[in-house]
Amino acid sequence: MGLLGYWILFTTPLVQSVLSSLHPDCEYVFQLEREERHCLQYITEHDNNHSTLGCLPFWDSLACWPYAVVGETVRTECPDVFSILGNKTGSVSRNCSSIGWSQPFPPYRIACIVEDDIDVPEDSYYATIKYFATVKLIYSIGYGTSLVFLSIAVLILVLFRKLRCARNCIHIQLFVTFMLKAVAVFIKDATLFASDDTDHCTLSTAACKASVVFCHYCVMANFFWLLVEALYLNSLLLSSFHHSHRCLWGFGLLGWGVPLVFIIMWIGSRMYFEDTECWDINEDSPYWWIIKGPIVVSIVVNFILFMNIIKILIQKLNPRLIQFNNSDQYKRLTKSTLLLIPLFGTHYMVFNFLPDYFNITVRICIELCMGSFQGLIVAILYCFLNKEVQKEIRVRWMKWQDNSYGAVLPGAKGSQMDTPF
């Protein structure tokens, strides 16, 4: 992930690949570490080949300087790390005197960075920090608000017996995945940003890796339960869904089990082949497709299923074909389905097939800021605005108020769900 100021949550895997390439801070660090290792290896190999009368080889944190005799001027090209900024055209020199090495001339900052070609003002750095701080604040508010409303929605659907049905059971699972994803945000942030002194480029602890794994699993489970919703709606409209426990168990295995299998495969591949840092940087990693591949497939299948839902609904709502006794049911299904389609990955279909660097600002805004409120919107549409939920809450409230009178309230009997399932 980007490490300039904040390691933003991978609300989706797309954001990971975007941000892992967005800021090169860690690239500088890793490049310098590689060059330092090479320099120390050189010093070790040639330790006994030089006279103590000259200037000994050393690493000055940017470049490796070889042995030189007194009076010699050593010239070296600008270190490779400056090529990350797009410039490596200059050179730096040092004189070897009787008292040791002189200061580099011209200084690295002047010799290796051309101000006309590369603009890296300090104001730009702090502006970027402020931008990511704002993004982090927005998605924290979004996930926090979503977590509260989703928790209330789950309690309502679980506690009210008349609201129990196959469709709401699937809704509950979807709500839980949104809740877990929100929890994963706060766990990850608490793990990675507990201290401002944390070196994110070299952070590699069990807690850090566990938070990343948990985050990946929550994201995958969320996408697969979105797929379950689409499968259920298709089967419902085709009248092919048999409301048996076996079907619900099958949906459960798809939503929770399949992501677990791919996560275990990814963990094994990272442990044995790419156990670097906190497992958060996936740029150019072939093992990243173990997670990203199934999610991309689920998004494509989801999109196809929803297009099929629209087609079926158009056919079923044809005035010449619709039956009187089920017209209200299909109209309610049409309304709820059309409300849900924009939330079920339409924008992911666009961004999944665009380059990672394409319009990064827009992608971050959609993936993180808007995505953090997705759970809130789902909870409002499928629980709090649901007429049957509102009716059941109203009946319970009136019962509680009139309990001492033992009154039988109108509408307290025989509540029907939006669907007969």
Quick structural gist:
The chain is 58% helix and 4% strand. The protein is mainly alpha-helical.
Can you walk through the features of this model?
This is Growth hormone-releasing hormone receptor. Belongs to the G-protein coupled receptor 2 family. Receptor for GRF, coupled to G proteins which activate adenylyl cyclase. Stimulates somatotroph cell growth, growth hormone gene transcription and growth hormone secretion. It is a multi-pass membrane protein. The chain crosses the membrane at residues 137-160, 172-194, 214-235, 247-267, 287-314, 335-354, 360-385. The strands form two sheets. This protein has a three-stranded antiparallel sheet with strand order 3-4-5, with no helix packed on it. A two-stranded antiparallel sheet has the order 1-2. Helix 5 (166-192) packs antiparallel against helix 6 (206-237), helix 5 (166-192) packs antiparallel against helix 12 and helix 8 runs antiparallel to helix 9. Residues 1-24, 115-122 and 407-421 have low confidence and may be disordered. It has helices at residues 13-20, 25-45, 108-111, 122-159, 166-192, 206-237, 245-273, 289-316, 327-340, 346-351, 360-370, 374-384, 387-401; strands at 58-59, 64-65, 73-77, 91-97, 100-101. It is built from 13 helices and five strands. The longest helix is centred in the middle third of the chain and has 38 residues, at 122-159. Helix content is 58%, strand content 4%. It has 421 residues and is mostly helical. Strand 1 (58-59) and strand 2 (64-65) form a beta hairpin. The protein starts with 12 loop residues before the first helix and ends in a 20-residue tail after the last helix.
